[in-house]
């Protein structure tokens, strides 16, 4: 465990000593704020329109049309937008985790240390997850402030944060295995994007497949398992699905490291 | 070379899928990109196989075999976990009103089901969405609710036509009857279940002939929505012209007096009094400026109402034309059976309500306005003009300051040993078509009806549509705070990054 923590500390120091981590966090915070404010602005415009209509007695007094609430108009689209930004950002964070070691030739040093492949991979995975915790915490700030100011239901916000966290872990795991297998950072990032995009949502393929395949494809889609979280429902099956992706990616990374040591 | 081909394949795949996701349709360019990606991937695999052979020429077959075995094991473990996850059913509903958990009302109805209901849902059996999750919860809650999921092709022509007409894809069958559920919401499904399972055993007679609100009235001030709700839940409703009858008919279990505009005849009052004295039950709605009837019976039981109206500007619904006189009330006596399930978080909206005056120990108030409320005299008169009504009222109320009771009940044993019950509301608008669907109004009215029907065990809050939970609006100042925070947080993080970068350069 100590060895894993040593790798974790080394990776985190490396991440936070470089401006890239801060740039990523800034980009995340800024995009989240912009999405949130944009959605909030659209919501307020709709409310103003509604007030005008009410004045002309076009809608029943004392009621608001279905769906016109902060939760559906602001929180849900913001979480979806944030998930997409995370999908775009995470491969950029993970691409260097193994590839950069290779490019700088520090991988040979790492391999000669008295560390097993499992410990190296675990340290790198944990470091990425800790960094992603910071990223998701930044994204959670705006909805949290909204909850404090407006009495918005905190359950779906909390569940959304948990969902974003698990989604980030899954995508980061894919990014890490790509980084471990790829020859350079560009290939690592592109392959992580390709795999994440491919498993994001299989619904479009269902037009060409049969029922049994539909079922499998639907179940394998990332978005299927992300859908419940922003609505405030956390299902054990969704958590285990994301954890399964992480475990699979971790084991593959370990195999990749073992092959590298054989070389 | 393999890396270059692989990168190109990834780019083609990302943009191909991006096109599909953005347009929600696999167009020609997207398909072209996907085919190119597939071709490039094959090229990359061939090139990398050649390359690996060259690179791993010195590598032992055993080592390579072991690596491949480990990779296969990793894929099997991942597949196993994903397969296992599909079998897991536990889930937690974190929403405050438990939107995705069946309400106590639905659970109670399903628990008491005595007939078999077969539900047919036309959808892709492979795809489990929010709708299906909800229907499956019904099936789990009762063995009498049986669910069958079929593809639209598997439906017979008759059912297929019903589905094609639009609306939901759920049809319930029971005893040779088939009803298509209008929308797949908990409320709509449970209402359809109630249609099949409820047997009317209590009759409500709505008094007419004095300008009362019409039981069949479809307009904003009518009571047709309440009538529909009552019949859905197993009550019979009928109109009662008491002036033409010698007494309240025997089939009337509950008499409803919905804000008459004219006073009742003395003979009618006597008939109602006799009805109550023999264990009958009364549900009375009052309105400002209209007579409170049956005056003598109510007064004898310590119930009356001020001829004023409640104003509460601090608690009004958004969009209300009559701000202040349409207060949202969320203070309930938690020990009173009528308001079981209602709490501070479940408001009821009244419109032009009369504050009730409760005298003696018998009447029990169960719904109260907030402390921010006050009452106003008709035409802006002085509060001193209350006259004898003011006697016995709490001092705060005499000054016209809330909280005021807007609903009260009284019950007593009659000489025949039966239990008579009377419920009085200071408003009728909250039960009319205009407002009964708003907030928790229907739950309050139906709570009173179940109480009068001696079926307190059935008093529950009905499932609500998600959209009823409106979040409060963001005031301008909060919006400004968001603006500053939206810029301050990224700025602070960027400054930290610059400091880290500068410190690193100096090392």
What labels would you give this structure?
heterodimer, A: 263 residues, mainly alpha, globular, B: 507 residues, alpha/beta, Glutaredoxin, Rossmann fold, four-stranded mixed sheet
| Low-confidence blocks of residues of chain B | 467-475
Q: Kindly report the spatial arrangement of strands forming the biggest sheet of chain B.
A: 7-6-8-9-19-18-16-13
Count of discrete structural domains of chain B: 4
Determine the CATH superfamily of the largest domain in chain B. Answer: Class I glutamine amidotransferase (GATase) domain
Alpha plus pi helix count of chain B: 13
Biggest sheet descriptor of chain A: none
> Could you state the order of secondary-structure elements of chain A as H and E?
HHHHHHHHHHHEH
Architecture overview:
The complex is a heterodimer of chains A (263) and B (507). The longest helix of chain A has 37 residues, at 19-55. The two termini of chain A are 27 Å apart. Chain A has helices spanning 2-17, 19-55, 70-94, 96-104, 107-112, 117-150, 154-181, 185-200, 211-220, 222-226, 228-231, 236-262, and one strand spanning 233-235. Helix content of chain A is 83%, strand content 1%. Chain A is globular and about 70 Å long. The two termini of chain B are 40 Å apart. Chain B has 13 helices and 19 strands. Chain B is α/β, with parallel strands linked by helices and 507 residues long. In chain B, strand 4 (170-174) and strand 5 (177-180) form a beta hairpin. At the A-B interface, helix 2, helix 3, helix 6, helix 7 and helix 8 of A face helix 1, helix 3, strand 1 and helix 13 of B.
Short summary:
By secondary structure, chain A is mainly alpha-helical.
Element layout with pairings:
The complex is a heterodimer of chains A (263) and B (507).
Chain A: H1 2-17, H2 19-55, H3 70-94, H4 96-104, H5 107-112, H6 117-150, H7 154-181, H8 185-200, H9 211-220, H10 222-226, H11 228-231, E1 233-235, H12 236-262
Helix pairs in contact in A: 1-6, 2-3, 2-6, 3-6, 3-7, 3-8, 4-7, 6-7, 6-12, 7-8, 7-12
Chain B: H1 2-23, H2 28-55, H3 61-87, E1 91-93, H4 104-111, E2 117-122, H5 130-141, E3 145-150, H6 157-164, E4 170-174, E5 177-180, H7 186-197, E6 202-207, H8 224-232, E7 235-240, E8 254-258, H9 266-277, E9 281-285, H10 295-300, E10 303-305, E11 309-311, E12 328-329, E13 331-332, E14 348-349, E15 356-358, E16 364-368, E17 374-376, H11 395-398, E18 405-413, E19 419-425, H12 441-452, H13 476-506
Parallel strand pairs in B: 2-3, 6-7, 6-8, 8-9, 9-19
Antiparallel strand pairs in B: 2-4, 4-5, 10-15, 11-17, 12-14, 13-16, 16-18, 18-19
Helix pairs in contact in B: 1-2
